[in-house]
Design goal:
heterodimer, A: 11 helices, B: 276 residues, alpha+beta, 8 strands
Amino acid sequence: MVAWALMPHRFDDDRTISPAGFERLLFRLDPDVDRAALEYEQLRRTLVKFFDWRGGWPPDECADETLDRLARKLEEVVVDNIRQYARGIARLVLLERRRHHEASLTDTDANLIAARAAAPTDGADDTERLRDCFDRCLDGFPDSSRALVIDYYAGERTSKINNRRRLASTLGLSDNALRSRVQRLRDRLEHCVHECVSRQERLHQ
Amino acid sequence: MKTAHRNPLVRRYLLGEATDEECEALERDYFENETALGRVESEEEALIEEYLSGRLNAREHDLFERWYLASPAHRQRVETIRRLSASHPAVLPGSRTDGRTWRFQYQWVALAAALMLAVGALWIIPRKPAIPAGQRSSDTRSPDASTPTQTPPGPLPAPPPPPRVFAFSLRPIQTRGADDVPRLVIPNGTDVVTLQLEGTSDRGGLDPMRVEIRTVNGQSVWKGSAAGAVAPRSGILARVDVPAASLPADDYIVVLFEIGSGGSERQRDSYFLRVR
């Protein structure tokens, strides 16, 4: 029952996806329940990346909305390629989000953005908050994961390349597998930092 | 393994420049294929690292700040990578390290352990009777002892590590908005901060140049010569290496001077820098 363990949040809110619909979605991804869970996680991750890169905000929420719609569609129509169908729904969700939140999504004032880029947080409190959350989240990692993600980003240019080669060789991984492992750790870290900062902001409001 | 993968289409996609058809093709690919998704992630990481180290050309730098950093998630990602890069301990003389990084210094612990083992091995290897200092002569050496007996066997001591350099691009004050102040967070362990100074015009610096860094109160904190016309196409006019220790958290004015053939100086550009 790996699949259910992975998605406990799916029925906690007011989404309209039914357990039967969700089960159908899993079955369409793979008849084997464990493989289906992995496929589901992979599809969700792809959707999150899609919204992240295309400016659909917040990406997690957009991805879940896409999956909900996909599950409902599977009750109505026959879908040949589920991943490409999910992509089609994702594009619709993106367009709708853009229409509804155009002002916040087309934030292209050059000076404002350049200033944000140079100073990702807006004040000393925010900087402190971010640093605190970053440290706290990183400390929450197992030692080996923490050492890996830090070691991965060590060095500059040639020394960085050599360092990553050494890491991949030490761990017996290909370059891509190493990058993928670190990417997932970094995703977790970013998610944790985001949650932590949001929590602290709410506390200070 | 490459740090910069330079996939032009993926770069355009990430920087919001790809056409609808290109986006569609790329997305079709990465929805179907995890390897394709990995390629985009990899390019994104390369882009961020190049941005942080000031290696993006002027055009990409501009697009990165206008498009990529428009997303709060992306700003946080860049900040995460910046902090991760700064978290690695650099056990260098005069390096700035904080208390929490000691746990990651296992490489140095391993090196120390290796050296201790080597010393231990020397101790337990049966040795010739010690020769008092000053009495050593060629006839007391074995015929093949061409190296000093004190030299430990095993790995040679590691050469001193190169200085840790952190690069940062600055735009002239005239081309920035009033609120557009670059904030530089120098990573722990940085020895040298390379400031890449962009120009207000395309004209590269042909004359020798020098840089003076002053606090906003006018106190000069550092002076030095600059390498001119480093990469005129990228908009970088000059580059200067400043010891990180010279830049404690403060607000600075960086002034770039051009030195004429007669030794006369002319102010070329000035830059605002906020170190935190």
